[in-house]
């Protein structure tokens, strides 16, 4: 088990995250690979539960507001959001429309690492 996944598990316990929040955190982690289709499918199914939907969307909006070295949170949150719009509850697309300003602010998002590489 990597130190990042161990750290993530500790945060999940300390912050008492729900199952839905933990799944979103896993799907939008800083790990150098994308979220699995099976995990995104599980999250999409959870969007039909009113409580889980609220938790999922709250975590996605939080991830979309990350900066700098957490650029993967932003990228993966956008990937997950696109998947949920297509396969999740209709409420996902409704909430995205209502919060379009938050998505539009990301059109200029950019992260350049310390070596000058645009991520």
Automatic annotation (TrEMBL):
Q: Which Pfam families match?
A: ENTH (PF01417)
Q: Where in the cell is it found?
A: Cytoplasm
Can you cite an annotated GO cellular component? endosome
Q: Keyword check for Cell inner membrane, yes or no.
A: no
Q: Which SMART domains match?
A: ENTH (SM00273)
SUPFAM superfamilies, alphabetized: ENTH/VHS domain
- Tell me what this protein is called: Epsin-1
Organism source for this protein? Neovison vison
Q: Which gene encodes it?
A: EPN1
């Amino acid at each position: 088990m990597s130190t990042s996944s161990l750290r993530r598990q500790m945060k999940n316990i300390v912050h008492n995250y729900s199952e839905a929040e933990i799944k979103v955190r896993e799907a939008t982690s800083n790990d150098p690979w994308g979220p699995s289709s099976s995990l995104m499918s599980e999250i999409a199914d959870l969007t039909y539960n009113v409580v889980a939907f609220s938790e999922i969307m709250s975590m996605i909006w939080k991830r979309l507001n990350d900066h700098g070295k957490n650029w993967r949170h932003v990228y993966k949150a956008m990937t997950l959001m696109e998947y949920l719009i297509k396969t999740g509850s209709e409420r996902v697309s409704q909430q995205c429309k209502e919060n379009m300003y938050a998505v539009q602010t990301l059109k200029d998002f950019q992260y350049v690492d310390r070596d000058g590489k645009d991520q």
